[in-house]
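A quick word before the example. In earlier lectures we treated sequence and structure as two separate objects. From today on, think of them as two lines of the same record. Here is Ubiquitin-like protease family profile domain-containing protein written that way.
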Amino acid sequence: MLSLSKKMYHENEAFKILDEDKGQMEKLDPKDEFVNQLLNHVLGKPILYTIENWAPLIPFTEVDKIYVVWLAHQHFYHLVIDLVKCEVWVIDSLANSSDEDKRLARYEGTLCLRRILPALLQLSGFYDVRKDLKPVNREWDLRFANKEQCFLQTDNASCGPFSCKMMEVLVSRRALPNITEENMKFIRRGIAERIFSFSKTAPKECI
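And the structure line, produced from the sequence above:
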């Protein structure tokens, strides 16, 4: 059994993590209770089911918003489905893209989603449980987050790490500092290190 210090040494060697890199990674990737619960869920371990610290496991009939990572044309972006206001918000790290045709192609599936959501909710019995809400028979409104409200990328390869961090912000309801293109290498290393570390104890079916 490796000691903790030796284990961390080997992990740092595997990912070529310098001491100064480690400090920057910890700032960008805080280890808190929310993240621990998320990892336990992925690894098949017992989790503490409470509204305060484990929103992802709450039935959708008990929440007002649903957070979705959407993949379209090899690009990840986020949808926030507001069940109360009947709105679908798009949070896209390529919101500053000047290619209008590509932007419209990415949102094609989202446009379909807002059309079928009213019927899906009624068929699922959502409104039978949520007596405080009334069904609507129209397309839901589609809104786009301002560029100031989301992390923006300037390349075509960073949407995955951006999406991971954006989901942490949305679900944990906290702001993570310095999620920028310049810090992307630290974010990537932090994600890789976490996966590498937890793969040592994960059940085989989770690897």
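Notice the following. Confidence is low (pLDDT under 50) at residues 1-15, 49-56. We will return to this example when we discuss secondary structure assignment.
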